[in-house]
Amino acid sequence: MGRINISESVGMSLSSLWASKLRSFLTLLGIIIGVLTIIAVVSVIQGLNNYVYTKMAFFGANDFSISKFSMIGTSLEEFKKQLKRKDLTSADLAAIRDRCASCELVGANLNTNGDVKFGSETLKNSEIRGVTHLDHLIGTVIELEAGRHLQREDEAHSRSACVIGADIREKLFGGLDPIGRWIKAGRQRFLVVGLAKKKGKVLGFSQDNFVRIPITTFAKIYGSRRSLTINVHTRSQEQMAQAQEEVRTILRSLRKRRFNDPDDFSFQTSDTFIQFYRTATSGIYFAMIAIASIALVVGGIVIMNIMLVAVTERTKEIGVRIAVGARRKDILRQFLIESSILAGLGGVIGILLGIAIAKIVTVATGMPSRAEPASILIAILMSTSIGLFFGLYPANKAAKLNPIDALRSEQ
């Protein structure tokens, strides 16, 4: 048993690990949990990123909205300041329509939530949205499967007309045609004049559980002392920045803001929604990575302890190998390979379990997941590196054993 090559070292390492299967598995737990967590979290986050960038942009590239509150909160103190802002009113809406040359379409909406009923069926906590007659063309474009959109006359005469989402039809009407039927949304009955095409879910939340009514009807039912969300569509993406500056000038003039006063309103674009998503998920992402890193370090420490036990148990074997010609670097290499294989195997098991858990999350919640080859490769390299690092001390200890003392060992 003299000098051995790498393939022989790998074979001997695998034999040694297989001889103590339960101990090897228990040793792998820390690595498995760490890699599993990283792969599961990264797969879900990567899937969500791709999904968000393509489907969560509620506004088109040429659209933006203006509201009283900022979507991306900074602090409780900042929120309290925003509570003191003036509401956006119908006068602000009219001024933007009249004076913004770069604004092609200007609409507005108001929101609340309530139960929707038809016959004996009830759908709880639906969005009831009061909209202007062209608001369906701005931002979240609403396409119809049947019927018509709300018209100028509906808004002008505060009619009890509505457009419903696909969830309302599926859960309240079954196989019936909803067009021309009356439903109760919140406090009042409405005639269904339009049925929106199904849009599906975003991050597990339905986009089809809504009733859209004329904004004037909404104001009569729920009161007009609410801040509008004003929505703007421009002719091109290049004109959007110019339109925002025009809107800013108009609103600051109406509110008599001095040149050094900050805006008392906020703009939202598709980038705002994506930034909000990043802010909401980044803390969770880094917290899970930190927990996984701790598990990997603990797993590395366990590997080091087990390898130290292995050195003690195989002291006589090491002495025999050195006596018949094995070099110290052969001993060092074998134990490093053994610890690396141990950690790498844990990494592979963790990757498989992590991908499986990510897929289970997708099936259970509808949130997409995507395991990138780069993240899988990084996980394997990371686990193997941990095995090398934490196996270095036991391997070095084995290589430095005195062959005479080793041969005298009773182990």
What does this structure look like?
The strands form two sheets. A six-stranded mixed β-barrel has the order 2-3-10-5-7-6, surrounded by four helices. A two-stranded antiparallel sheet has the order 8-9. The mean pLDDT is 82. It has helices at residues 6-19, 21-55, 76-83, 90-99, 152-156, 166-173, 215-222, 237-254, 270-313, 315-323, 328-365, 373-399, 403-408; strands at 63-67, 103-118, 121-131, 144-147, 161-164, 182-185, 188-196, 201-202, 205-206, 210-214, 229-234, 266-268. By secondary structure, it is α+β, with helices and mostly antiparallel strands.
TL;DR of this structure?
This protein is of the alpha+beta class. It contains 13 helices and 12 strands.
Total beta-strand segments: 12
Q: How many domains, as an integer? A: 2
Mean pLDDT equals 82
Q: Which sheet architecture does the biggest sheet show? A: 6 strands, mixed, barrel
Q: Strands of the largest sheet, in order across it?
A: 2-3-10-5-7-6
Percent of residues in helical segments? 55-70%
Total of helices: 13
Given helix and strand content, the structural type is alpha+beta
Q: Helices and strands, in N-to-C order?
A: HHEHHEEEHEHEEEEEHEHEHHHHH
Radius of gyration over C-alpha positions, nearest whole angstrom:
32 Å
Note the overall shape. elongated
Strand content: 15-25%
Provide keyphrases for this structure:
six-stranded mixed barrel; two-stranded antiparallel sheet; 2 domains; 56% helix; elongated
